[in-house]
Amino acid sequence: KMMIRTVVQSRVRLRGHHRLLASASVIADGGASSGGHHLLTTTTTSSSNIKLTPASLSHHPTTQPSRSFWSSSSSQEDDEPAKSTVKSSTSLLPIPPLTPSNISATSLLSNSTITSLQSLPEIKSALDILYSTNNNPTTTTSIQQVHSNLQRARLILQSIPELHSSTYLISMDLYTLSGQYELALENLARYNHHSLQQQKGNKRTLLHLQFLKAKLYLLSGQFTLALSEYEDLLDTMEQRVQRQMKNQQRSEVQRGVSVIEGAATLSGVGLTKLLLHLHRDSTTTTAASANEIIEAIETSTEMLLESRRDALRSPKHAELAIDLGIAASISLTNLGIAHCTLLGNKVKSIELWKQGLDMLDTILGDAMNTAMIIPRHKFIWMESIRARLHCDIACLLLGLEHDDDDKSSAKKKQLEEDTLKHASEAAKKGLDIYDELINGAKILRGETDGSGSDDTTQNENENDDDNKKEWERILQEEVKKKQQAEDDEDKPPEVALSPLWIDYHRCESARALGLVAHCYAQAGAAVTSEGLFQSALDASSSYPFGQSLRSNNNVVVVDDGKGIAQSSPNLGLIARDVRLWYAMLCNNWEKRKG
Questions:
Q1: 120 C-beta neighbours (distance < 10 Å), count
Q2: DSSP of 6-70, one letter per residue?
Q3: Which member of 86, 128, 275, 524 has the greatest number of CB atoms within 10 A?
Q4: Residue 85: pLDDT band by 50, 70, 90 thresholds?
Q5: Which residues of 62-89 are buried (b: 16+ CB within 10 A; e: fewer)?
Q6: What is the C-alpha separation between 545 and 137, in angstroms, rounded?
Q7: How far is residue 394's CA from residue 519's CA, in Å, rounded to a whole number?
């Protein structure tokens, strides 16, 4: 058993090195680190009663530059000589789409490995489920059948160690999809055992596997074990930074710790400690424990913000600046949640979340100024973060961040008109963003914002500016696509997105629908509120691999197929929240009481 050092001690050590980490990342990568998807990974547990939703990059794959959320050239190991850039046939192979998975272990596999595995029907059926590339409805029963098929495939591939071990990563993703995190951990251990020789010396792969292990512990509620893994990662990174400082010189063949990896690890330590605190006793908070948690996340945020400022000084690091900005907006989201949860400082939380929104706007502005097109998958993720931030602000203004007793009902009815107005605006913005993520941009659908607000001049100007920016972005993207088709026919295709993203955002939109419904309830429009809550309940239960709950004579019957997502605690908590908010409406409504 390793001894866990405190976050404050680790923070002091890494804080002194984060300038070095920033410059090292810019020099070595020329792009963002592929470890950015690990920043973090936290949703609150059902015992914590917290209803704020932190943003997470955990849905994105890891190491393969062509498939990863962070497009970079950082997949080489630390001690491996740099290879000359030669276009191979591998880069032209079909690229599996990004999926909204918490783990995405299969992203550790190369495109050539995935193509080889797909030659077996048993494995192709599993990949079809993971990437949702088939249109057939999939049930839990069929997923179980796929696990049997994978076991048969392992017997066939025993003579090919690399392909044989890869099947455990596929099983790991499948178990995560159905919320079976313990079995996912078991398959991760089997993969580590069978691929021990392949991983030898590959520090980058080992680091990503440890990240995955920490995240699985976190998702399964084993917070102490998750904290141990994150602390161990932090120690490893610090040792690598110290070696960098001793060498004084960095050659192109070496690569140190990137900013996003360091920030993700610090966030992992801070947020896991936050969950430990909430799980054990959410009623008492000492100043020391609160500072430990907040300072870890705060340092992570400062590292990202300062690194972004450094990256903006050079046009060749424009893509890195975008990635650092997205990561910073997520870190600001988490920092606001920590301030609200631990210190009850709502003003500070909203201030941090608005800073996160400003950062997303700045990224778009910088991209316009430098004539750089933000890749579609990154733009969609930015909008998803923006929607969560608006919903967090609305949730806080409505006083829904904690479960309160029955005495709070009268208090919640006395919301000031101005507060209710701001909460309604934030919730509506979040809902509008989700609508576009699910159904496409309104401007392409021939729709306009028909809110009918009295604040005509300002709102119309803002909408015109937003529409103009969106048109310019779309036009620039189309022009660039044509240029790429004409000038660079051999360039690998752009990152594809799994259809599961729309399903994921539809489930997430239930939170925005519930907040808008609660605003109507506060305004006395109970009938409208109930209709919106019914839509929220339907949206929260629409995930393809979810658990469907239907009531039969007050007895819950579990169906397989579409339902409440089991792969994401975030979506599960959203489904819980909208039901609690609807129950609150019914309890305060004479016609629906009880």
A1: 18
A2: PHHHHHHHHHTTHHHHHHHHHHHHSS--GGGGGS------TTTTB-------TTS--S-TTTSSS
A3: 275
A4: very low
A5: bbbbbbbbbbbebbbebeeeeeeeeeee
A6: 9
A7: 9
d(CA 591, CA 594): 9
Both tokens of residue 62? 């890891």
Alpha-carbon distance values, 25 to 107, 150, 326, 434, 526 (Å):
22, 39, 16, 33, 54
**Which H, E and C letters describe 495-515, residue by residue?**
CCECCHHHHHHHHHHHHHHHH
Band (pLDDT 50/70/90 cuts) for residue 476 is low
Q: How many CB atoms lie within 10 A of CB 549?
A: 14
Length of the chain: 594
The rounded distance, in Å, linking the Cα atoms of 183 and 203 is 25
**Spatial distance between the Cα atoms of 112 and 575, rounded to a whole number of angstroms:** 39
The 10s digit of each residue's pLDDT in 276-318 is 988 876 556 677 888 899 999 999 999 999 999 999 988 888 8
SS3 state of residue 560: strand
Distance CA 566, CA 379 (A): 26
Residue type, 99: T
C-alpha to C-alpha distance for 426 and 349, rounded to whole angstroms: 15
Q: Tokens 């529409």 correspond to what residue?
A: 467
